[in-house]
Write a structure and sequence with these properties.
With about 375 residues, this protein is mainly alpha-helical. The chain has one domain. It is about 60% helix and about 0% strand. The protein contains 18 helices and no strands. Helix 3 runs parallel beside helix 6.
C-alpha cells in the first residue's frame, strides 16, 4: 500500500466514522415525523382486494413454475421455470412481513390461508416472524444487541458479507430438518424443545437472540402451525421413496434461491452502521434504505413494498400497497434537501458496494466494536 493509499483509507475511515456518529446521535426530525403521519391518514387501511389476489396469484404462479422446473425435460426451459418459481414464491413468502404489522382484524382469514398455502408448504410458518420482527421496530431495541434482525454488518470483516449470503443456501435444508426431526423429537425431549424454540424458531440474523416462550392465543397458533409444518416436512422426506430424490432436490434448490434472494435484500435493507447504541426514530430511518423508482429491478428483489424499507420504519403499520403513494406525498411536501430524502438510494449494486467498502475499511481498523468482532 502506498502512502497515498494509506492516507485515503485513513481519510475514508475517519469520514465514515464521523458519518456514523452523526447518524447515530441524530435527534428526531419532528417536522418529518408529523408530516409522515399527516399525509398518510387516508391510506392506512389494508385493502383485501389487493392483498388476496396478489398473494394468491404469486403462490399459484410460483407452484406452477416449480412443477415446470421438476417436470420439463428441456434443461433451459426447466431453469427458466425455476427462476420464475423463485421470484413468485419469494413474493408470496414476503407477505409474512405484512402479517406481523397489519391489525389482526384487518384481513379475516388471511393469516390462516397464507399459512396453509405458503407458510407451511415452504416450511416457514408465520410463527417464525410474528413476535420477532416487531422487536426490530421497538424504539429502544433497534440496532442494539437485543434486536433479533440487526448486526453491524458494515463494521465487520470483509469475509462476513459473502458468508452472510452463502449461509442462506442451507436454510431450506435446515428448515426441513427442524420441522421433520427436531420439532417432533422436542415433544418427548423437553430440553431439545426449549433449544429449538429459543434458537431455531425465528427468522433472525442476530446469533445472540433467544425467543421467549409463546403465550396465550399465539401459543395456540404455534401449536397448529408446528403440527402442520412437521406433518408436511415428514411427507416431503417420505416422498423420496415414491418419486425419488429429484423432485425434492429441485424444490430445495428453488427454495435456496428464494432464501438467497431474501438474504441479499436483507443485506441492503439497512446501512448496518450502528454499534449497539439506542437510536432515535430519525436515526433508525437514516440507517434504513429506500430504493424508489426509477430503479428497475427493485420490484423483483424488494417486492411487497420492501423497496421503501426506510419509510416502513417511519410508518410500520402502513400497508405495503400505500407505501409508493406515501413516498410520493412526502417527497412533494418535504423536498429533495430534507431529512426524508437522505434515506433514498439508487439501487441494489450501489448499496452492496457501499457496505463492502465499509467492511474493507473497517477490516483495517483493529478497534472494531466488540459485537462486530464476536460475529
Amino acid at each position: 500500500m502506498t502512502a497515498h493509499d494509506s492516507t485515503t483509507v485513513l481519510g475514508d475511515t475517519a469520514s465514515q466514522a464521523s458519518a456514523r456518529a452523526k447518524t447515530a446521535g441524530k435527534a428526531d426530525d419532528m417536522a418529518m415525523l408529523r408530516t409522515a403521519a399527516e399525509v398518510t391518514r387516508d391510506i392506512g387501511t389494508a385493502r383485501p382486494d389487493i392483498y388476496w389476489p396478489d398473494m394468491l396469484i404469486s403462490a399459484a404462479v410460483g407452484y406452477a413454475a416449480l412443477a415446470g422446473a421438476i417436470l420439463i425435460d428441456n434443461a433451459v426451459l426447466a431453469i427458466a421455470s425455476g427462476i420464475v418459481s423463485v421470484l413468485a414464491l419469494y413474493r408470496a413468502l414476503l407477505f409474512i412481513h405484512e402479517l406481523t404489522h397489519i391489525h389482526r382484524n384487518a384481513l379475516p382469514g388471511f393469516r390462516l390461508v397464507w399459512n396453509l398455502i405458503v407458510g407451511i408448504p415452504l416450511l416457514t410458518p408465520s410463527l417464525m416472524y410474528e413476535n420477532v420482527h416487531t422487536l426490530h421496530h421497538a424504539r429502544t431495541r433497534y440496532g442494539t444487541a437485543e434486536d433479533p434482525e440487526y448486526l453491524p454488518l458494515a463494521l465487520m470483516k470483509p469475509w462476513s458479507l459473502p458468508l452472510f449470503i452463502l449461509v442462506a443456501l442451507l436454510a431450506p435444508l435446515a428448515f426441513l430438518i427442524r420441522s421433520a426431526i427436531l420439532v417432533p423429537l422436542g415433544v418427548v425431549i423437553p430440553p431439545l424443545r426449549k433449544l429449538v424454540w429459543e434458537k431455531f424458531s425465528a427468522l433472525s440474523i442476530n446469533p445472540d437472540f433467544r425467543r421467549r416462550p409463546a403465550e396465550g392465543e399465539f401459543a395456540r397458533q404455534v401449536f397448529w402451525q408446528e403440527l402442520g409444518a412437521s406433518i408436511w416436512a415428514i411427507a416431503l422426506i417420505a416422498s423420496v421413496f415414491a418419486f425419488g430424490w429429484r423432485p425434492l432436490a429441485i424444490a430445495l434448490v428453488v427454495l435456496s434461491g428464494v432464501a438467497v434472494l431474501n438474504q441479499l435484500r436483507t443485506l441492503v435493507a439497512h446501512l448496518w452502521e450502528n454499534e449497539g447504541e439506542p437510536m432515535s426514530v430519525t436515526a433508525q430511518y437514516l440507517d434504513s434504505v429506500n430504493v424508489p423508482p426509477p430503479s428497475p429491478l427493485a420490484v423483483l428483489w424488494a417486492p411487497v413494498g420492501l423497496r421503501y424499507h426506510a419509510l416502513h420504519h417511519l410508518l410500520p403499520s402502513l400497508p405495503y400497497h400505500s407505501l409508493a403513494e406515501a413516498h410520493r406525498r412526502l417527497n412533494e411536501r418535504l423536498g429533495a434537501t430534507s431529512t426524508y430524502a437522505e434515506a433514498n438510494h439508487p439501487g441494489l449494486f450501489v448499496l452492496v458496494a457501499r457496505i463492502a467498502r465499509s467492511t474493507m475499511v473497517r477490516g483495517s481498523d483493529r478497534r472494531a466494536p466488540k459485537r462486530a468482532e464476536a460475529a
